[in-house]
Design a protein that fits this description.
229 residues; Spore Coat Polysaccharide Biosynthesis Protein SpsA, Chain A; 26% strand; globular
Length: 229
């Protein structure tokens, strides 16, 4: 099965407070986006990798990930995550049968996880890394006081990578309007809204998204500890 991978890396990373875009911040000796490229480059079925980078940072992104045959294109991302996915979709080769979408902000992606998700496409059109919610959930009022509980049973947090049958994802994006591209926070939500069943698969290990400086320190430790050699 031929797979095209889109790495969305066009976020500014304001909450990280760095002086470069988040995907270019160095973590455990490499720019963050390079960890995802390295993992995807090690998966046999991945033929083409497209990176959506902050507009104007194409050359720095190319330098950050190095020369790899499977990097198909580096394109300017959009003003929302889903617009960056759309830019990546437009740049993928036509022939791919499977499309993988991954946040550069999750550098702990492994080839093993990608393999596990794509093998599930044999019996689902959409497969997403996700983990059951572990914390007790509260609903709060605007002043920060709890005004209700939320039953966490059956609630999972969606992550990336997310993999899709290419025709399914392309059809969903073809009919999405501007409002949806601005408001949706992941592809699984756009797919699920159209009645397509989305299978969740627990990575079984840490797969955090880097948002704050504390997340960066955590990921630094996990990567540096050799969890991904
Ligand atoms: O901002 P957040 O961490 O939720 O973004 C998730 C991913 O989407 C990140 O990898 C970020 O670089 C990417 N993104 C993007 N284009 C945007 C906003 C976010 O590619 N306009």
């Amino acid at each position: 099965m031929t797979t095209g991978a889109i790495i969305v890396a066009a976020g500014t990373g304001e909450r990280l407070g760095a002086d470069v875009p988040k995907a270019l911040v160095r973590v455990a000796g490499r720019p963050m986006v390079a960890w995802s490229v390295r993992a995807l480059d090690a998966v046999a079925g991945v033929d083409a990798i497209v990176i959506a980078c902050p507009p104007g940072h194409e050359r720095e992104t190319a330098a950050a990930v190095g020369t790899r045959a499977r990097i198909h294109r580096i394109v300017p991302g959009g003003t929302s995550r889903q617009r960056s996915v759309a830019a990546g979709l437009a740049a993928l080769p036509d022939g791919v049968e499977t499309i993988l979408v991954h946040d550069a902000a999750r550098p702990l992606i492994t080839p093993e996880l990608v393999g596990r998700l794509t093998s599930c496409l044999a019996h689902a059109d959409a497969v997403v890394a996700a983990a059951p919610v572990a914390d007790t959930l509260k609903h709060v009022d605007p002043d920060g006081f709890v005004d209700g509980g939320v039953d966490r049973s059956g609630l999972w947090g969606a992550q990336t990578p997310q993999v899709f049958r290419a025709d399914v994802l392309r059809a969903v994006f073809a009919e999405a309007d501007d409002a949806e591209l601005d408001s949706a926070t992941d592809c699984a939500g756009m797919v699920g809204r159209r009645g397509i069943r989305v299978l969740l698969v627990d990575p079984g290990g840490p797969n955090p998204k880097v948002t704050t400086p504390a997340d960066l320190r955590l990921v630094e430790v996990l990567l540096g500890s050799g969890r991904i050699a």
